Amino acid sequence: MPRMTPTSPGRRGGLAALLRPYLERAPVAALLLGISSGFPYAMIGATLTTRLAQDGIDKRSITAFSLAFLVYNIKFLWAPLVDRVRLPLLGRLGHRRSWLLLSAAGVAAAVTFLGFAEPATHLAATAAAAVLVGVAGATFDIVIDAYRIESLEPRQLGVGSGMSQYGWRIGSVSAGALVLLMADSLGWTGAYILCAAFVLPAVAACLWLGEPPRHREPVAARSAAAMFAAVVAPLTEFFSRHGAWLVLAFVLMHKLGDTLANLTLRLLLDELGYTNAEIAKYDVGFGFIAYLVGIFLGGVLYTRLGLKRSVMLSLVLMGVSNLSFAALAAYGHSNALLAFAMCFENVASGIGGVVVVAYLSALCNLSFTATQFALLSAAASIVGRFVTGTTAGGLIERLGYIDFYLLTTIAALPGIALFAWLMRAGLVEDTIGEAGARRSTGNGAAPAAPAAAPADPPR
Prior knowledge:
Growth Hormone, Chain: A; 2 domains; two-stranded antiparallel ribbon; disordered C terminus
């Protein structure tokens, strides 16, 4: 496999030149797509944790609900189906648009079903509804990722990814806050039904842009063998790269500590006696603003430091930020300390959300972008979610919150150490795909490729 060399960053311009790319049609559509992509996650994440805790469900059962997120981690298994199968009737609107409209309807229906579930009396039905939201949301993600990538021109991929990150956070935070604020007046059922409307920004984006201009109509897989090949080819291409298995190991473990800490935070807040209004203000409100700041800083760091050093910095920050939760658990109910903890955590997560996702995007081969990105993004949190769902509740009961959050910081160390080794061994560059680099040629020229930050900053 020819060696990949990173693309060069564009020239720096004035403020107007910096902002202009963000106002183009495709990046604005990426923002709308991100809003709809983010809200199902909130419905089965912190929001559902709060609802279950207030209904008196025990900690072990509550943390087990995080297993619903595991559906997102296996979405690569049916990503080729979304790529290959043309829908009847709706297919007349275009392959990507028809799948987006169908998956949006599925998400709205699943969230409504979850709203009607009663955890206190029908916990199994609530769990089934949460899994359905996970399945529908994961499928929605597959379609949205493919639609976004194919709608953006190569020069817009960096800006579009940032806008998608902003949109995802806006969607998840807005839906989470809206449920908490409306639950008292409308009840949980009414609040969930209201949030089902968050599918509309993505629907509006696809109706506005139409079928993605870079979309290639799929060749129908008319046999089981052809369908199997469509699943296997993206995987065999990735694992043929030198060091690919070590990169996958890093992807699997790098968010372990961060996921353990974040998926259990609402349990700590409930234990410390925070009200819904305080959670909405400090966790959701302060955290939202801090995350937006983190996204901006992530873009700056990625450009200035390059891929490798910005990823390493983000890993360290995400690990250290868990110590603020340990401090909150030790001190007790304090709005000031909660505000600090949420700002620290969300700035670190915002930086990581940009630079790590950019790294995962850079690993993709453009021939298999949707499936490979689904594989990598799913793998990025599967270990943390599985450990949270199976052991986090028991660990909290056995260790207490302070030692638990100290443990989550220690759990971040293997990912940091492995990425440091990948940097020293040169395997970061060796595994970069076409989406993040360009092929070297004998005369030094290279074909155009999507813009990405270099593995190292320009000298």
